[in-house]
Amino acid sequence: MAQLVQPIANGAFVLSLDTDFDGCMRLVRKVTSELPTYLANSLNSLRLEGQKTAAIEILQQFDWEVPDWVIVPGGNLGNIYAFYKGFHMCKELGIVDRIPRLVCAQAANANPLYLHFQSGWEDFSPVKAKTTFASAIQIGDPVSIDRAVYALKNSNGIVEEATEEELMDAMAQADATGMFICPHTGVALTALVKLRNSGVIKPTDRAVVVSTAHGLKFTQSKIDYHSKAIPEMACKLANPPVNVKADFGSVMDVFF
Ligand SMILES: Cc1ncc(COP(=O)(O)O)c(C=O)c1O
């Protein structure tokens, strides 16, 4: 409901199906081929045309100086391709002279692109996605797999992955600076940390981590983390409230 409440509130006609993303995707393909409905998913190349403006905005915000790396969380893999397309277009137009190296960051629980990259781009196999806090990228059979591979090969790109513990710790670490990020952004931040620690991303490199959703859509995961209520997770950056009796003396005792 946290994800659905915005279209519901805006008056959309919403169907809730008892399946995962890949199951919905299979049905959506069928339904849109039978009915004159407009598909706004990234199967529709017009959606990607719109998404590529994010690449142009990054370049503009960097005063047209190309960052060395752009890290994007990936599930259905439309975004990573759209970023590539946007950067490539700016290069073709002569606005910039190179494009950033792209990093696609996946949740280890839904990592078909990561496995494909690790195999040296050998045969691609979809996976059955396991549950991840980064629920928007809980996808085992990405629609835009070929586009993503093309984007990564042509940008000297890399695929990284983040375990549930890594992505939740990264989210908590970012939030502690005053941000309020979503778990997908935690996946991308984990990729940055791993690539920086392994020396792939150099200290002087400029890297952009794309934040794809607002943390307010993922408050339950943050509540569980800070309550240390996630099974088999240390939640080492949890910052739970101190329970204090509602009297002046007890409150003062906490401070002194
Ligand atoms: C919050 C969030 N993060 C990341 C993504 C990943 O984009 P893609 O599925 O195009 O790889 C999506 C896609 O809808 C998303 O909603």
TrEMBL record:
Quaternary structure annotation from Swiss-Prot or TrEMBL: Homodimer.
Domain of life assignment: Eukaryota
Domain named Tryptophan synthase beta chain-like PALP: residues: 9-212
Record function comment: Catalyzes the gamma-elimination of phosphate from L-phosphohomoserine and the beta-addition of water to produce L-threonine.
Keywords: Allosteric enzyme, Amino-acid biosynthesis, Chloroplast, Lyase, Plastid, Pyridoxal phosphate, S-adenosyl-L-methionine, Threonine biosynthesis, Transit peptide
EC numbers for this chain: 4.2.3.1
GO biological process terms held by the UniProt record: cysteine biosynthetic process; threonine biosynthetic process
Compartments reported by the entry: Plastid, Chloroplast
Catalysed reaction, written as an equation: O-phospho-L-homoserine + H2O = L-threonine + phosphate
Membership in a protein family: Belongs to the threonine synthase family.
Record protein name field: threonine synthase
Cofactor list: pyridoxal 5'-phosphate
Keyword check for Signal: no
Pathway annotation: Amino-acid biosynthesis; L-threonine biosynthesis; L-threonine from L-aspartate: step 5/5
Top EC class for this record: lyase
UniProt keyword Iron, yes or no: no
PANTHER family in the record: CYSTATHIONINE BETA-SYNTHASE (PTHR10314)
Cellular compartments per GO CC: chloroplast; cytoplasm
Molecular function GO terms recorded: threonine synthase activity
Organism: Helianthus annuus
